[in-house]
């Protein structure tokens, strides 16, 4: 199964993609996670993209296209979470898939209104060590502000401040929303109301995806 996950920042793409990845046994490729890991390691890529990510802007298409091509070339099933984010990236993915003789099965759109997003993201915390995602309102760690997996102090992402979140939302509307229209012509689009509880969203999503197994 090959899936694309779309949705505004904080819609729950990462949260849901992890569940689908576990249950359906398919690889979860989050371009945001890959970039943040590169920043944490201080690699060449990380140094190039740190200031862009902190401002909430998009990393150049050429970098993203190469990175994703490399990741998917040997995979038979995957979820792409956070890519493609521009029409240029979508065209590049199209070319790559043609070369590899692969096809997307479905495009998932998790939709959530802007005010709910700002609320959710302001209470998101992440573990800087293992990447686990928490929420101080809906998904607290068991022990104060320490990661359940590894005991590290959880922190707020640099790009999760309100003014940056609003900027990311604007960029989503301007650059990424049109990409969904690009897919509407030839692909099945599954639209999910992401403002419900995590469990309800998961249930709805699993029901919709069952037919692609
Ligand atoms: P990326 O990491 O992809 O950021 P994003 O798209 O803004 O998405 P988020 O990670 O903020 O949110 P999410 O939808 O995964 O939500 P989550 O599950 O965590 O990208 C970051 C940056 O990298 C970009 O700004 C850009 O600079 C760069 N980048 C990445 N890909 C790129 C590309 N292709 N091209 C160019 N640049 C690129 O949930 C959010 C919070 O809400 C959590 O606390 C969670 O616990 C909680 N939550 C989740 N679901 C629910 C629910 N149903 N109810 C209540 N709370 C919930
Ligand atoms: Zn951890």
From TrEMBL:
Residues 30-59 are annotated as: NMP. Residues 123-160 are annotated as: LID. InterPro entries: Adenyl_kin_sub, Adenylat/UMP-CMP_kin, Adenylat_kinase_CS, Adenylate_kinase_lid-dom, P-loop_NTPase. ATP binds at residues 10-15, 124, 133-134, 196. It is found in: Cytoplasm. Pathway: Purine metabolism; AMP biosynthesis via salvage pathway; AMP from ADP: step 1/1. It is an enzyme of class 2 (transferase). One of its GO terms (cellular component) is cytoplasm. Zn(2+) binds at residues 127, 130, 147, 150. PANTHER family: NUCLEOTIDE KINASE (PTHR23359). This is Adenylate kinase. The lineage of its organism: Bacteria, Thermotogati, Thermotogota, Thermotogae, Petrotogales.
């Amino acid at each position: 199964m090959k899936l694309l996950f779309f949705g505004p920042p904080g819609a729950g793409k990462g949260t849901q993609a992890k569940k689908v990845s576990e249950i359906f046994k398919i690889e979860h490729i989050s371009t945001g996670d890959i970039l943040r890991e590169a920043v944490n390691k201080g690699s060449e890529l990380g140094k190039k993209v740190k200031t862009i990510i902190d401002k909430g802007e998009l990393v150049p298409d050429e970098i993203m296209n190469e990175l994703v091509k490399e990741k998917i070339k040997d995979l038979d099933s995957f979820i792409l979470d956070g890519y493609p984010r521009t029409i240029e990236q979508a065209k590049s993915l199209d070319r790559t898939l043609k070369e590899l003789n692969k096809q997307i099965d479905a495009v998932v759109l998790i939709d959530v209104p802007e005010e709910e997003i700002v609320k959710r993201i302001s209470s998101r915390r992440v573990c800087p060590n293992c990447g686990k995602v928490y929420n101080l309102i809906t998904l607290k760690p068991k022990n104060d502000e320490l990661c359940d997996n590894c005991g590290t102090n959880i922190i707020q992402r640099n790009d999760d401040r309100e003014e940056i979140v609003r900027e990311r939302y604007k960029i989503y509307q301007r650059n990424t929303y049109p990409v969904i229209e690009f897919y509407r012509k030839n692909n099945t689009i599954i639209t999910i109301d992401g403002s419900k509880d995590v469990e309800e969203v998961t249930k709805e999503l699993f029901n919709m995806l069952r037919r692609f197994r």
